[in-house]
Backbone:
């Protein structure tokens, strides 16, 4: 548990008139790896809450918000982005070593993000198409989540993360308790809101049954199917999901694409998409899927 006292004046030094203030608030650092910065922007979007947070936490390292840098160690680190370069691998170990609690924020940090699509492709080909001098790039052939490299104390899902969940994680840290973050599906949130079920009413595919709650069933509330940006829920039944998407008329290739979006690298979604590709390959070859 972390103390979060405010600035306390120290006793007067003999021969000095002004007391020396010591900032005893826990230090927060926000780090970026391969990402679009959207999750860091969600922190800044907390606006009113951010002022209250800043009273209780010393925002010591947050380059997206301020150039002022206070040296570590840090009691709390929030980490955005995935590991895609050898330098990232070195840096995340360094960050872990100087962080008391480390929380990963967003689909990039928790599942490799959209950039995990490279895990099914030839990264050298991507590199040579996009860059005039690919020889200057040092990159890994896979995009991996932070937890594949160091111990992570807590993961916050979403693309981007939800502002309310961010505030809950910070409040839980300050009070020395576990964050209250649901692990059930988007369908639960959707039903609690009284929404009409999109696939039932309109036949629109929806990943809500296999996706972790947290967004407040945002897309179904506007008549769109869930895109799965919070990643797989606990015990996601992707076999049943695949069957339902097929019944709604989606091809195997389309279903592969919906699993491989924001959380392509999440094990459950990766396995479901791999199974579809294996079945398609077996069917094209006239054999059984391996
Ligand atoms: S999880 Fe989404 S919003 Fe957050 S950094 Fe990655 S791409 Fe951006
Ligand atoms: S609209 Fe989607 S998230 Fe909502 S209940 Fe139906 S399947 Fe679940």
Residues:
């Amino acid at each position: 548990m972390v103390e979060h006292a405010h600035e306390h004046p120290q006793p007067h030094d003999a021969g000095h008139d002004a007391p020396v203030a010591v900032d005893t608030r826990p230090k927060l650092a926000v780090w970026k790896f391969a990402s679009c910065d959207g999750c860091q922007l969600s922190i800044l979007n907390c606006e009113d809450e951010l002022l209250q947070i800043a009273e209780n936490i010393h925002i010591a390292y947050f380059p997206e918000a301020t150039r002022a840098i206070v040296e570590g160690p840090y009691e709390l680190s929030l980490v955005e982005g995935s590991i895609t370069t050898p330098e990232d691998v070195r840096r995340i170990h360094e960050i872990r070593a100087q962080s008391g609690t480390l929380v990963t924020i967003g689909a990039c940090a928790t599942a490799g993000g959209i950039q995990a699509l490279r895990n099914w492709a030839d990264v050298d080909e991507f590199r040579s198409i996009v860059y005039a001098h690919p020889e200057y790039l040092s990159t890994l052939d896979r995009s991996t989540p932070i937890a594949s490299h160091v111990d992570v104390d807590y993961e916050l899902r979403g693309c981007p993360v939800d502002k309310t969940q961010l505030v809950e994680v910070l409040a839980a840290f300050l009070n020395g308790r576990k964050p209250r973050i649901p692990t059930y599906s988007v369908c639960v949130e959707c039903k609690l809101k009284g929404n009409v079920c999109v696939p039932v009413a309109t036949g629109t595919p929806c990943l809500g049954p296999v996706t972790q709650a947290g967004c407040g069933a945002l897309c179904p509330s506007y008549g769109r199917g869930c895109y799965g940006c919070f990643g797989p829920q606990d015990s996601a039944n992707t076999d049943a999901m695949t069957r339902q998407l097929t019944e709604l008329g989606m091809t195997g290739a389309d279903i592969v694409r919906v699993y491989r979006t924001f959380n392509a690298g999440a094990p459950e979604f990766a396995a479901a998409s791999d199974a579809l590709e294996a079945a398609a390959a077996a069917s094209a070859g006239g054999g059984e899927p391996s």
